[in-house]
Design a protein that fits this description.
Elements: H1 2-23, E1 28-29, E2 40-45, H2 60-68, E3 77-82, E4 87-91, H3 97-107, E5 119-120, H4 126-129, E6 145-149, H5 151-159, H6 163-168, E7 172-176, E8 183-184, E9 190-195, E10 206-211, E11 216-220, H7 233-238, E12 242-246, H8 268-274, H9 280-283, E13 286-289, H10 303-310, E14 314-315, E15 320-323
Parallel strand pairs: 4-5, 5-6, 6-7, 11-12, 12-13, 13-14
Antiparallel strand pairs: 1-15, 2-3, 2-15, 3-4, 8-9, 9-10, 10-11
């Protein structure tokens, strides 16, 4: 009888642990043996366009990185995995796309295409589309990779070299998308592009809402200032479960040698001030992303990173996974 009681108690405890793990849908860090078995989003990069360490940077934030490197410092990108339909998608084609596609393939529980089933671009700044170059003849020589773009971005790629060569050579296939028009990618994933104000020298700039079976994700890696957007960011956050938003600079002290009017972004301190009256459950939705190499939020031990967390917000981290 005692043996039965011990066994029954262990069975109940083990069952509870398994149930807790299976029901969790919060952000978790994937490990080397992690298997994504449900429709999920995985963060493949968190750094601003030029990466980290940053070219020609002589500051302390880059010195050690130039010497020793840091595998977590990848340019901002999201991966989408749909095991049921055996599909994967990439948001942004960064200079780190080779590694990011390998990560996406590693965590997909099926034989993923080497290029994924499609790539969504936000705009024509270097960190967000130049990874397309690796699909050309000098590298992969890919075949008709679907690239989802807004109209102006589509024209930019088609009419300018070397990108036009990717189109004429059938390395990529441009798929035009429209502001606010939903795209159904599978039975489990839908995605909605929306225009945001940013420096649109060559293309429009969009953010995306990713809609899964149970969760909605907001992704805005680049925007000039929240007040310039015709949509109220607080209302936008209220309509989703997670919001990955522009955290390029923590404050103005990082860019004392450059004119901020040339590179406008909402400082993290401005965003935290704007969101300070939100209830804690709304603050927990917010994850800052797209960090400049100077941003102390990249260093968990910094007082600025600790302040972000203390104020109830979050800092996006590579290989974080969200069940959609």
């Amino acid at each position: 009888m005692k043996l039965f009681i011990i066994f029954f108690s262990f069975f109940i405890l083990y069952s509870c642990i398994e149930s807790t793990n299976n029901e969790s849908d919060s952000i978790g860090k994937s490990s080397s043996d992690y298997i994504i078995s449900e429709t999920s989003l995985i963060i493949l990069g968190t750094v601003q366009d030029a990466g980290s360490p940053h070219i020609a940077c002589k500051k302390d934030c880059c010195k050690e990185l130039f010497a020793n490197g840091d595998k977590s410092r990848k340019v901002v990108s999201l991966g989408l995995i749909d095991p049921e339909n055996k599909k994967t998608y990439l948001i942004e084609a960064t200079p780190d796309i080779a590694t990011q596609l390998k990560i996406l393939k590693k965590y997909s529980p099926f034989n993923m295409k080497e290029t994924s089933d499609g790539i969504f671009l936000t705009h024509a700044h270097i960190g967000h589309y130049t990874g397309l170059m690796y699909f050309g003849k000098e590298a992969m020589n890919a075949n008709l990779v679907p690239i989802y773009t807004m109209p102006k971005m589509k024209s930019f790629l088609k009419e300018n070299g070397p990108w036009g060569q990717l189109v004429s050579g059938n390395n990529i296939k441009l798929m035009e998308i429209s502001d606010g028009k939903e795209i159904s990618l599978s039975t489990n994933i839908r995605i909605i592009p929306f225009r945001v104000p940013h420096r649109d020298e060559y293309s429009e700039t969009v953010g995306y809402t990713v809609v899964g079976p149970h969760k909605r994700i907001l992704f805005i890696p680049d925007i000039d200032k929240w007040e310039k957007w015709e949509t109220n960011i607080i209302e936008a956050i209220s309509g989703v479960d997670y919001a990955f938003i522009d955290g390029t600079f923590y404050d103005g002290d990082e860019i004392n040698k450059r004119d901020i009017s040339e590179i406008p972004h909402p400082f993290i301190i401005e965003s935290m001030s704007l969101f300070k009256e939100l209830p804690s459950e709304e603050k927990r939705k917010i994850y800052f992303i797209h960090f400049n190499h100077t941003n102390p939020a990249l260093r968990p031990e910094s007082k600025q990173a600790k302040r972000i967390l203390k104020n109830g917000f979050n800092i996006a981290s590579i290989l974080d996974v969200i069940k959609l």
